[in-house]
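User:
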Amino acid sequence: MNGLTHFEIPVNDIDKAKEFYSNLFDWEFNFIEEMNYLMFTTKSEDGKSKVGGGILKKQNESHTITNYITVKSVDESAKKVEELGGKIVMPKSAVPGMGWFVQFIDMDGNLLALWENDSEAK
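Assistant: Predicted structure:
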């Protein structure tokens, strides 16, 4: 809990990015067509630790890598973000069958996201 669980890499060309990262890191991919999203999982050297990731179409030129931190409750953590001086930039949203996320900017302008696992998310 409260650890890096997922990160997203925004790109201009998903197919080129797949080729690049596959050749660079030997990542294996799973394309989710309805989301136009390319999923992958990284592994630690000993194979015990995993972090998921995704490649998506860049939304604009300022779209940067987003790190997702798993929390117990997106609602409670989002409230804390604001209490501590951060700003919610994307409200609670569902990834159906997987969970919920909220994107926020910290006090220094860094974009991060909160993630809550919930197989019932719709």
